[in-house]
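W.,

You were right to be curious about this one. When I first looked at the sequence I had no strong expectations either way, so I just let the prediction run and decided to look at it fresh. Below is the sequence, 477 residues in total, followed by the output.
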Amino acid sequence: MEKLISAADFSVEHFDHDSSPSLGALRWAYELFRFEARISLQGTLFAIGEDGMIVATAYGGTDNRLVGLQDAPDADHPERQWTHDGIGAVSRSVVAVDAKGRIYACSMGGTDAGRLQAILHVLRVDQAKTARELWQEALFDPETPRAQPNISAITVSGDIVYYAHNVIGGYRVLARHADTGESLWRHEARGFAGRPCLGPDGVLYVPVEAGGNGAIIGLEADTGKPVAVDDATNHVYYHRLSFDHEGRMFATERRYQEGTAVGGSAVHVFLRDAASGHYKKSHRIELGDTGQHIETTLIAGASATLYGVSGHETIVSGRVAQATSMVWAIDARDAKILWARPVSGRIAGSPTLGADGTLYLSVLANAASVDDRSVATCQAQVHALHARSGAPRWIARLPDVDFDQAARGRYPGLTAPVLDGDGTVLVGISAIKEAKQGDVQRGCYLLALRGDEPLARTAWPIENGNAGHTGTAPRQD
């Protein structure tokens, strides 16, 4: 079969003349799945274990499998060490790998009644390089059979895995033993739960919406017992949480426009109260009347610096015609904006911070035109910026993706960057190319670009907290 993408589809523009010209160059492209026809939503999910194992899968196809890849410095392709069939992925879900090598993935299956259900799978790779399933949980709710709950984040601490899923009328937060699946505790309430994450105080925090109000709930990691979070704000729907090395908790917000949820334009900062040890709302950081919405997790840098992205889209004839984005740095202590840099196009996911002070972004450039064609495409890019100033270091131009897929929000055909242990920049992409006969070919790939350093050693340098996507901040006692 003819290759869908090749080295000719990649180019790099450098802005730092004193840095290596190899930065941003393609090292390898690994094909996960080739699509014969257009599918409503397709993409790639992956995570990196502490031993360097890359666990990847594609969603939107019929060839459901997880693969384990091992990379080596300067290798021109990764070594596939194992494959596990029967487990694909669910869009808007997650693949995670914890510190002990356990793998977490969510797939979609059927019930005896012919209904779809999401299934959480937990696996471990044995000494024979075989991925074996430890346990699984079907998230189908027999009391609300129309519900198709999904897991958008996994949080792991030691041998306990935490996750939340939503059913009609309520949400559930669960804690299970990661090796056996044994239920340790369960918290249920009315409303809608967002992504849980484990704070530096060892408490599990979850943004929730209920009864026209939003809140952040705290649950003791060992028992599930509620922990107070002092928040006097009403009618704020919190969206994504993250933490910095000094223990601050940051929350983005979500609001509703004509019945549709969109990101807000403010960041809420919580500090731990010295007397009670509980988090209390400290202050709010406003981006101003820019028309930009914050849709993703905030990234914590050094010296109380906070990095985030925001965006705004223009809709023409039901399609996103143009998107304008902004990446910015804020001093979390005094809410001072340190710098802000505009980006033409849509930023996919959150920024990623490298140990050398490089900030990486995945960008979906604006389509050259949006017309009545059945397929509109846009160029995928990776931008590297100086975190201190926002000045560009290099831009890698990647193959095109489906523009309609790009406008779907989370996991839009291009993932946020992830850095491995030697600084290689990894992104997942759902590539598209027009064949000679006029047919359109699609495929999901994992791409490796040359970078400088691994992830920064801050409390939250990447969207899900770490390269394994386990949503845990370093413990502070």
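Here's what jumped out at me. The chain has one domain: 10-449. And, maybe more interesting for your project: The two ends are 56 Å apart (CA to CA).

Coffee later to discuss?

I.
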